[in-house]
Every structure is written in C-alpha cells, then in structure tokens.
Amino acid sequence: MNSIQPYIEQHKERFMAELMDLLRIPSVSADSKYKGEVARAAEYVKKALEAAGADNVEVCPTPGHPVVYGEKIMNPQWPTVLVYGHYDVQPPDPLELWDSPPFEPVIRDEKIYARGACDDKGQVFMHIKAFELMMKTNSLPCNVKFMIEGEEEIGSAHLGLWIRENKARLGGDVILISDTSIIANDTPSIDVGLRGLSYVEVEVTGPNRDLHSGVYGGAVANPIAILCEMIAKMKDENNHITIPGFYKDVLELSASEREELNKAPFDLNEFKQDLQVDDVYGEKGFTTLERTGIRPTFEVNGIWGGYTGEGAKTVLPSKAFAKFSMRLVPNQKSDDITRLFADYFKSIAPKSVKVEVRPHHGGEPVVTPTDSLAFKAASKAMEETFGKKPIPTRGGGSIPIVALFEKELGLKSVLMGFGLDSDLIHSPNEHYGVFNFLKGIETIPLFFHYYAEMSR
Ligand code: BES
Ligand code: MN
Ligand code: MN
C-alpha cells in the first residue's frame, strides 16, 4: 500500500479546499429554516461521491432530510463495507462565542475551524477521499456502500424506515463509522461501546395564568420552584439516580473488566484543568472513565420559565419547563427508561401542580465486538499509521443508528473515529486537526486492505 502517502501528499490541499466548501453549507438539521441548506449539503456529498468514482449515487428523499447513497461493487465475491456518516450539523449558537464565523471555515494552528469540521463532515470527507484514493490508484479491495444521512443530530428519525425500505441493496459484511474520537494524537483508540439515550421534555403548570407575586405569592405553588425540587429528587446523596427500576437492566462489569477499562490513559488533573473545575462530580463508587463509559446518567439540558428579561418583574409564573437527557448503557432500553422516568416524575409532583412529560428521540446503547475481523483490521490499520496499537475504549456519546443497523441489517459496526474530545463538537469553535483529517485518509485504505486480506 505504498501508493497512499504520495497520493495524499499530492492532493491534500485540494482535499482540504473541498472539505471547506462542504463546511460552508450550513446544514443544520434541527432548524427548519435551513432545510434548503441541508438539501444543498446532500447534493454536495452526492457530487463528491460521484467525482470520487462511486456508482448509483442518489439523494434519497425521506419524510425528513435526505440520505445520500452511493456504491462501488468491485466483485460480488469480495467483502462489502457499508460506510455510515452524517452531513448534518448541530446549530452553531451561541454565535458570539465563535472566534471566526461557524460557516466560514478557516485553518488556524493546523486546525480547521467550522461547525461540523469534526462532527461529522470532516470525518465523512476522509472516507470519500480515501475512496477516491483507492479508486485512482486501483487499490480498492472490497465493495463499498455509502450511507450518509442528514438527521443524525436530531435522532435519525427517518433512517430506520429508509433502511427497511432499502434492505435489498444494503447487504454487506460490516459497517464502518468515523464519528467518534481517539484518546490523543499519540494515543490511538477505538470505541467499542456507545451509550443509548432517552430524551424528554417536561412542563410543570401551577396556576392557570401568570400571577402578581405579591397578591398571590406564598399561597400558590410556584412551578419553577417545584420543578427545581423535583429535579433535586432525581438523585440521592451518592448521585445514584432515584427513578425506581432505573438500574434494573444495567449490565454490571466484572472487576477485571473495570480494571481493564481504567487502564486507558487518563489524567484527572488535566481533565479538571481543561474544564477549569476544582473537582469532578458523579456517581459514588465509579471513576470518571466509568462514569462516562459504562454508567447511565440523568442530566438537565435546559430549564426555563418566568421572567428573564431586563430589570425586575414581580411575577409568579404559571409554567416552568425543562429538557432532560438520560444516557443509557447495556442492557437498558430507551422506551422502558422513558416510561420509568415519566411514572416517577409524575409521582413526585405535589397536587398543587400539573405535570406533562413529552418524550423526544431515543436510542439504544451498543457494544461492538473486539474479536471480529473488522475490528482487527481497524486495529491493524491504526497501529500502522499511528505507530501504536489502538486501545479499545467506551464512548460516552450516542449514535442511535448503530443499534438499529444491528437489528435491521444484522450487521456490527466498527467505530474508527479520528476526532479528539477537545475538538469542541457541538460547542463554539468546533475544529478538526489537519493531522487527524489526513491520518484518517491514510488509515481507511489500510482498513480496507487488511479487512479484505483477513476475509479471504
Ligand atoms: N458524533 C456524535 C456522537 C459521539 C461523539 C460519540 C463523540 C462518541 C464520541 C454524534 O453526532 C452525536 O452528537 N450524537 C448525539 C445523539 C443524537 C441522538 C442527538 C449525542 O451523543 O448527543
Ligand atoms: Mn456525529
Ligand atoms: Mn453530534
């Protein structure tokens, strides 16, 4: 595979310029006013796949944002790799905290700054360019099918249906995804697990209208205060979640599995310094790596109500709202947890308020195998390009579609991501290292090479 380096060296400026063109398209899936831009990004991905040499490239409409499909069938006898990624991005707000505008990508300090630079346009683009490289150097040893969706950041609501409707053409052997991180640029790792998700919104209503806080205050429940009390009841003094039955399906790891997990390089002081916190906080009896990797959580994502404008307004509000996310681990089930949450949340509400629980998207947790050919191929490829064997780790984030691929297509995934946790995905000043982008393009062809070799 000595054609990889020279090809990258010769074309890397163009690779980056093309990625920057994709980053200029504000494909924010959550916000309907960007619908046209999301469609434009899908077209861009389609053209990029075609230019790289893919066949039957199609922007497939869904009731939501489209899925871009493309393939290259080299030989029906060869193994088939399905590459999944997403071209949609998170909203860029708050805009004023960006050092340069989120959709005007720039390279500073060897990093590409833009919304989606790492999550996931930059990582999707590595696959398109690695594919181009293999096509142009006649070295593609597998069949490839690309599924690049536009709704990952809003829960992949329509991808499940699309997969079921397209089952016939989605046959393959493994799913390859670059949408996660490595520990550090000198410490490669491969995620072998992702958490699931149950996301809910609640509305707490007190009196039927906003009231004068003097005329009525003291005699009527304040929904904001009640909501805060209820949130405080979600965890006990050990930071265990108090929802009855919440832990009943949690797969507890053995002492040796936990020991293995805690061997991953992790510096608590660096972690604290980076976040400028004097101490970490979480479930008693578990380390930080365990708290983000193998333990479920309950987090408040947002809370609002009452008067928050300039000056003072003496109001006793009628309503208070909050958004909660619960990260799930094997073998918790998103629907079960949502139900347990709703039952508990309603049960702790005093009679003086009414409570409504509205479930948003969910997703199931996954663990991926480390003894599969595909994992071994990914490990070998990374070992070759990083000069170190990658460490299997548990990712704290969620990619709900991974569990769905397993259910609908019977296929396991390999999470060969190249980002860093410090890339500020979902935050202002998201960026992606040029090193990481090029490292991905270098490693992916080696994955295909070793996967084909091991499959024969
Ligand atoms: N790429 C991330 C998930 C991720 C990031 C996994 C880093 C592991 C390490 C993905 O785009 C994402 O943000 N997922 C959402 C879930 C989705 C349903 C909104 C998440 O994890 O919050
Ligand atoms: Mn992502
Ligand atoms: Mn994301």
SSE layout and pairings?
Blueprint: H1 4-23, H2 35-52, E1 55-60, E2 67-72, E3 80-86, E4 106-108, E5 111-113, H3 121-136, E6 143-149, H4 159-165, E7 174-177, E8 181-182, E9 189-191, E10 193-194, E11 196-205, E12 211-212, H5 223-232, H6 255-261, H7 268-275, H8 288-293, E13 297-305, E14 315-316, E15 319-328, H9 334-347, E16 354-363, E17 366-367, H10 373-386, E18 391-393, H11 401-409, E19 413-415, E20 419-420, E21 431-433, H12 434-455
Parallel strand pairs: 3-6, 3-7, 7-19, 8-20, 9-18
Antiparallel strand pairs: 1-2, 2-6, 4-5, 5-21, 10-17, 11-15, 11-16, 12-14, 13-15
Helix pairs in contact: 1-3, 1-12, 2-3, 3-12, 4-11, 10-12
Bound molecules: ligand BES and manganese (II) ion (MN) (2 copies).
Pick out its properties.
globular, six-stranded mixed sheet, alpha/beta, binds manganese (II) ion, about 450 residues, about 35% helix, binds ligand BES, Aminopeptidase, four-stranded antiparallel sheet
